[in-house]
Design goal:
538 residues, alpha/beta, Purple Acid Phosphatase, chain A, domain 2, 2 domains, 12-stranded mixed β-sheet, 11 helices
Length: 538
């Protein structure tokens, strides 16, 4: 049966007479375009996902409310049905009280299945009052699951909120993402969400992401009418056409500054009417490589290091007979000389077993004394490993607590990738992550996460390993797989699986499987199966 749903999304208007950030010309042009869409298709669903006002004052609210209604009426659409959720600017200056008077609830739910459609849309509030960052929170996560999980996979499930879920390219230093992004992502997979639409950072972007079992489309809307644009993106609004077996994503430029003057189209196939579901990639019988990935050993003579767990874990690692052991930082607990002396014994054990290992430092390894000790005990802060069909490019992000890659390192990475991408399994290694990690707040995401994420996905770097946060996870963005390790032997545990390490198996048909192995119990947990862009070694 054929079906079609048209959705228009606009956000980040920043309407105000006083702040100087409101671009009235862009606003008028944008409303004129959306009004035309409504006249052509009265069933179009219109969503506004936050930052209607700039300061959240009563003057801003009254002006914005009158301006939106009046401009739509001027262009032939009287009292359009618009579904609203707030942004962080709307709740400045106790703006939440005025919001309730003008717009009512801070969430909405649209169910087209009641009229024969196949789309449901949930809008929720992600705002923390008087803060730029956001949070979904436990109640919000419960609402997502309760509202969406009951619908079958034949229904396309759309979730929208104001703040961004993953870092956004071309938006400068990473900040103000939802603080609990690492805990929100698992709920989205469990609820079967197909499309997530967010605003906030004023740059239009679209990523396909996967947990190794399902796919999801993550769309960031740009700014509709703020003077604070990003680069050449200008002012835009977003349209989704969901019909039969495809979704068409278009960013519409609405002024002369926008690179999206000509609508850009991205077609994403649906499988049996569903974007997310797809058959799990099956590995072939032929191994290409077996990689042990661990992190946060935290060698110390203090109580944080569990020697019995470490000894058991190393025995388990060696029994796996990996091609290489890769450690993504946190080798020592305090970077003291006695910590590094313990590390020497560990390295000597692996050397006796002829077991290759690659290590990058974490913040704890370099502060306060560790830089010289790392050079003396381990070697390079930015190691490169190249043996057989595996190439590892390590980048030191541990010099700053929040982590930083930097443009210089990206250039070095680019040059190295060009040399080895056609004949090696290429792995990038660092301590910090540019992905949200479960059970941790977003603040430890690297500062330039958005630009790094764009670089890695555009170049199709197949595997990125990290280790900060003591919690394991795997997430594919476009074709790049980001894998974080839990803690190997520290008492500072953030996972119910306690101390763990990851095993990566890479097969000749370009399938990567990721397992998390518990040191205490030996239990194995499948984190995902992914198809990755590596050379054909068959």
């Amino acid at each position: 049966m054929n079906y079609s749903t048209k959705i228009i999304i606009f956000s980040d208007l920043h309407i105000s007479k006083f702040s100087g950030y409101f671009h009235e010309e862009a606003f008028t042009n944008g409303i004129m375009s959306i009004a035309q869409e409504i006249r052509n298709n009265p069933e179009t669903i219109i969503l506004n996902i936050g930052d209607i006002t700039d300061q959240g004052t009563i003057e801003d609210y009254n002006y914005a409310n009158a301006l939106i209604k009046g401009t739509f009426a001027t262009h032939g659409v009287e009292s359009p049905t618009i579904h609203y959720i707030p942004g962080n600017h709307d709740f400045r200056n106790i703006g939440r009280e005025i919001w309730h008077d003008l717009y009512g609830l801070r969430h909405f739910f649209i169910d087209t299945t009641k009229k024969g459609g196949k789309v449901v849309i949930l809008g929720i509030d992600s705002v923390e009052p008087d803060a730029n960052s956001g949070r979904i929170g436990s109640r919000g996560r419960d609402e997502i699951f309760a509202r969406l999980s009951s619908y079958p996979d034949t229904v396309v499930k759309v979730l929208t909120f104001h703040h961004h879920l993953l870092p956004i390219p071309n938006t400068g230093r990473e900040r103000s993402m939802i603080r609990d992004a690492g805990d929100v992502l698992p709920v989205l997979w469990d609820a079967g969400v197909d499309i997530v639409i967010v605003g906030h950072r004023h740059f239009p972007n679209c990523f396909s992401i996967s947990d190794g079992k399902r796919r999801m489309l993550l769309i960031n809307n740009g700014t509709f009418s703020s003077h604070k644009t990003r680069g050449k993106a200008g002012h835009v609004y977003l349209s989704l056409d969901i019909r039969n077996e495809h979704i068409e994503v278009q960013f519409h430029g609405i002024d002369r500054y926008s690179i999206f003057q000509k609508p850009t189209t991205s077609m994403h196939p649906l499988k049996e009417g569903v974007l997310a579901s797809y058959s799990l990639p099956q590995p072939s019988d032929h191994f290409l490589a077996k990689i042990c990935h661990l992190s946060c050993i935290h060698f110390t003579e203090g109580k944080d290091f569990q020697k019995e767990i470490f000894d058991k874990g190393i025995k388990m690692v060696l029994e796996e007979k990996p091609s290489v052991v890769i450690s993504s930082g946190g080798l020592t607990n305090d970077s003291y000389e006695e910590d590094y002396n313990l590390a020497k014994g560990f390295l000597a054990t692996l050397k006796k077993q002829n077991q290759p290992i690659v290590l990058v430092p974490g913040t704890r390894d370099l502060q306060p004394f560790g830089k010289k000790l790392w050079y003396r005990t381990i070697g390079s802060l930015n190691p490169i490993y190249d043996e057989s069909n595996i190439h590892v490019f390590g980048i030191n992000t541990g010099s700053e607590p929040n982590g930083l890659i930097g443009r210089h390192n990206l250039k070095l990475l680019e040059n190295d990738f060009k040399k080895f991408k056609d004949n090696r399994i290429f792995i990038m290694l660092m301590h910090h992550s540019c992905m949200p990690v479960p059970q941790t707040a977003f603040e430890r995401t690297i500062k330039d996460a958005g630009d790094v994420l764009e670089f890695l996905t555009q170049h199709k770097i197949p595997i990125i390993l990290s280790g900060l946060g003591h919690s394991a996870g795997a997430l594919q963005v476009e074709e790049s797989v980001f894998i974080n390790a839990g803690t190997f032997s520290s008492k500072k545990i953030r996972s119910e699986k306690r101390n763990t390490f990851n095993m990566l198996n890479i097969y000749s048909n370009r399938i990567l499987t990721v397992e998390e192995i518990e040191v205490q119990s030996g239990k194995r947990h499948h984190l995902g199966s992914f198809r990755i862009p590596i050379p054909d070694f068959r």
